[in-house]
Amino acid sequence: MRAADTRIPAAVSKLAERDAGSGPPGALLDVIVVGAGFAGVYALYKFRRLGFSVQAFEAGGDVGGTWYWNRYPGCRCDIESIYYSYQFDDDLQQEWEWTERYASQPEILSYIRHVADRFDLRRDIQFNTRVTAATFQEATDKTPSHWTVITNDGQTHKARFCVMASGVLSTPNLPDIPGRDTFAGTTYHTGQWPHEEVDFTDLKVAVIGTGSSGIQCIPLIAAQARHVSVFQRTPNYAVPASNRPLDPDELDDVKSRYGEIRAASKKGFTALPFKPAGRSALAVSEQQREDVYERWWGDHGLAFQGAFADLLFDAQANRTASDFVRRKIRKLVDDEKVAELLTPDFPLGCKRMCVDTDYYPTYNRGNVSLVDISRDPIDGIVPEGIRVGGRVHAVDAIVFATGYDAITGALLAMDLRGRNGLTLREKWTDGPRVYLGLATHGFPNLFMVNGPGSPSVLINMVTGVEQHVDWIADCLAHMRERGLDAIEAEAQDEDAWAVHNDEVAQRSIRGDCASWYTGANIPGKPGGFLPYVGGFPAYVERCEQVVENGYAGFALS
Ligand code: NAP
User: Fold this and answer.
1) Ligand 1, atom 12: closest residue by C-alpha
2) What contacts 388, CB < 8 A, 6 or more positions away?
3) Under DSSP, is residue 330 helix (H, G, I), strand (E, B) or coil?
4) Ligand 1 geometric centre to CA of 208 (Å)
5) What's phi and psi for 195, nearest 5 deg?
6) Structural domain includes residue 286
7) 214 Cα to the center of ligand 1, angstroms
8) Do residues 247 and 392 share a domain?
9) Per residue in 391-427, pLDDT tens?
10) 72 Cα to the center of ligand 1, angstroms
11) Would the CB of 402 count as within 6 Å of ligand 1?
């Protein structure tokens, strides 16, 4: 840490304690928050409560982020609703009634809208406004260090701090397939689904992509459309979601123990209150293993990959679980050739595992066909449909379930310029370097929520978001108390964090295959494992140690 010797005059430091709103237009704000999903909504609440003046900008027409944009049929969370919710306010926790074990997109959107209304947050969110650029301004005799932020309506805003809550799965990947714009029918991307109902009745529909989004929407589209052709490049592992209505008594019981449940979640590797399985998959008999897998398959959803302690760390242990799911696929799909095509050959959990409702049996329907594009990729899109190996599959609509430019996409989509005009794109040419996933050297007073190098997508994201925002808010309060002007991650500490992250990733089988975790889904994206794989408790401990040691690894001035 650099010594705090250049305190800014109190008259210039506007980090005043007040019940802050956004203040007059053009004023120097304390904080600009980019995005109003789960992260941005909580950041706005938290910073306002601490008396900072704050304004949020949101590209969508309402709060919700992912849950605002992803309206495709079957969209629901793969983390149980009682956990995938905020814990910062006990009254909120007690009053909200989740109706299903895994909440659907409309229910999650209603929840976050309720949060925005309950805490009167909308007055400081400018909707339908995208941040296009932000530039760091060095302190002068008259002004403290700050950011000028440009929005797509041509307005310029100023704030001492920028908090990027722009989402990790928010920049859709629309593959550049030749002839894409010549298609005569309608195209959709699961991450930019229309607000009005889409009716596929009597239509022939193509779905490209078999990740979580494709696996959720294919059964529902198949139930409505005349025919569905699924274009699959890589099969994925899907385990049953085992969704069901939540019994009111069950919910009451959870509410009566919420404190204890949340405390247990903070100790959980994935910020969920599950005790880690203690045993190796290789330490039990074949029959015992089979029984465990059968039980977890039947009721545990995504947690299936934690049925034994070493499934994500030991290739041989992993093979036992992968083989179990492969056998399930063969049982569930009638046509042997189709079953073979649907069977993954990489380790389970290496790409993000999917949870499904009726995915595999959907291929037993007469109106669904699987088009294998693993060897012969799509050669082009023509007005009538999709051409593969010279043959045109005629369709009326194409659904791109082709995923996202994950974790770094939304950050790099903005023209962010730090000290000496350095752009974030230049800084991250060889891949992102972010200290604790929170801040990057050369970009003082800019924080990321769920940035590269934070546990983000590998844990319960709502709990992760609250921890990140709390850490940033404490840091801002610390700076206010001491009249500090700027905070900047030290280059050597962010490098050391990246090395540590790589080492931890190497210990997990997750780094072993091409996935969006490593940026492999986006042509030209630099490699490297993007989220932190070391688990939530280790990460939180590290963040706390940094604070205890006077913000070690950050320069404060
Ligand atoms: P994804 O996992 O990245 O899957 C994208 C799919 O599109 C893959 O099958 C990919 O094939 C295919 N694809 C991409 N480009 C292609 C091309 N040019 N030609 C043919 N196929 C192409 O994206 P996603 O399904 O939207 O899921 C992303 C993440 O969002 C999930 O992993 C999860 O974290 C989150 N999510 C969660 C839920 C939930 O909570 N249940 C639901 C949806 C999404 P390859 O594998 O060969 O690249």
Assistant:
1) 209
2) 231, 371, 373, 376, 377, 378, 379
3) helix
4) 9
5) -80, -30
6) yes
7) 7
8) yes
9) 999 999 999 999 999 999 999 999 999 999 999 999 9
10) 14
11) yes
